User: What shape does this take?
Amino acid sequence: MPDRRIPIGGLLGIGFAVHPDTEHDLVKVVSHDGHALFDAVTGEKIAGGRDSGPATSSPDAQPDLLP
Assistant: This one.
């Protein structure tokens, strides 16, 4: 079985959701290096980057990130 661990240095936050199309579990991570969204079933990195502006990177700015 392949090793599917992905190191996340300087982890600031983590969140979970369900993909609306595939119903796979999603994992959102935010670290000092940026942010990324992973498919927890396949391990695929769906999105990510280093530049998440403060205006759009907090739960307050994104209603769909609220609990």
